[in-house]
Amino acid sequence: MTHLVTENPCNFQKTGRAVLQIVREGLQQLDQYINEDFTHACKIIYHCRGKVVVMGIGKSGHIGKKIASTFASTGTPSFFVHPAEANHGDLGMVCTNDIVIAISNSGEALEILTLIPVLKRRDIILICITSRPESTMACAAKIHICVKVPQEACSLGLAPTSSTTATLVMGDALAIALLNARGFTQEDFALSHPGGALGHKLLLRVEDIMHTGNDIPRIQPEASLGQALLHMTSKKMGVIVICSIEGLIKGIFTDGDLRRILNLSMNIDVRNLRIDSVMTQFGIRVKPKTLVVDVMNMMKSKNITCVMISRNDQLLGLVHIHDILHTNIT
C-alpha cells in the first residue's frame, strides 16, 4: 500500500542532516581501527604474488565491488567474486597465491562461512572486514579489520548505512596506503584509465598526433620567400619549416613573421629574398615522447601555434594548436 507523503520539506532536510551527522560520527570511530591489524593487512597485500579477491553478499557485496575496483585502478590487481557463485564453481577463479578479503557487517554471512574451510585447505590467506571482532568470520581470518560504528543512520536501525560507508572508507584507506607504498604515479593511474579524460591527458604524446612526411610544410634555406609563401599557403598551417635536404632543421617561418616584416617595409622582393634571411633560426622544438598536454601549456605560455618535433635536429613532425584542440585535452 502506498502512503501519501504529507511531511513538511523542512522535516526531510532535518532527517537528511541527521543522517549525515550519524555517518560522520561513525567515520570518526574508524581512527581506532587504523592499527596493527591494518598495517599487517597492508603488508600482506603489498607482498601478494597473486590477486586480491574481494567477496561480500548483499550491500557488503556492492561495497566489495567498489573496493576491488579501487584496488585494481591504483596498482593492486584485484577482482570481485560473488560468494554464492563461488560456492557453485567460481571459487576456481581463486588461485593459491591470491588473498581473499571477505566483507560482512555481522561476520556471519553463511555464503562466506561455507567457503572458509576450502580457503584454509588451499592455504589462501583470508582477511575479513566486519563490525564484530568476536564473529565467526573474524575468528577464522588471519587478519580482522574492524569497522564497527555506533549506529546505523536508518531510523529503524535495519538498513545498512553508516556501516557500509565505514567499510567503503576502510577499503579506500587500504587502497591508498598501498598506492603510496608502491610509489604509484599519475602515469601508472593513466595506464589503468586509458579511456578516461585523465588517462587521455597523461598518455597522449605529440608523436601520436603530429604531421609527418609530405604533410609537413617544409622548404630548403635557399628558396625564395615567394616560394615559401606559396608552399605554406598550400598546407594551410600558417607555418613552414626551413630545413636542409637531409632534413636538418635550420629555422621556421610563420604568418606572424610575414606580418612583422611587412610592417617594417612594404617594398619586399618576395622573388629574390631568400627565406633563410627572414626565418626564425632554430625555432621551438620538442621530442616525440613529449606529452600533448605539456606542449599545449608551452604553446599558451609562449603564445605560439606550432611546434616542431625533432630528434638530434632531425625534423620528424609538426604539431599545430588545432591538432591539439581536436584531441579535447583541456
From TrEMBL:
EC number(s) recorded for this UniProt protein: 5.3.1.13
Segments forming domain CBS: 210-270
Alphabetized Pfam families for the sequence: CBS, SIS
Gene of this entry: kdsD
Cross-referenced PROSITE patterns: CBS, SIS
Subunit organization: Homotetramer.
SUPFAM superfamilies, sorted: CBS-domain pair, SIS domain
Name this polypeptide is given: Arabinose 5-phosphate isomerase
Keywords: CBS domain, Isomerase, Metal-binding, Repeat, Zinc
Record bears the keyword S-adenosyl-L-methionine: no
InterPro entries: CBS_dom, CBS_dom_sf, GutQ/KpsF_isomerases, KdsD/KpsF-type, SIS_dom, SIS_dom_sf, SIS_Kpsf
UniProt similarity note: Belongs to the SIS family. GutQ/KpsF subfamily.
Residues with site note (Catalytically relevant): K59, E111, E152, H193
Binding site residues for Zn(2+): H82
One GO term of the biological process aspect: carbohydrate derivative metabolic process
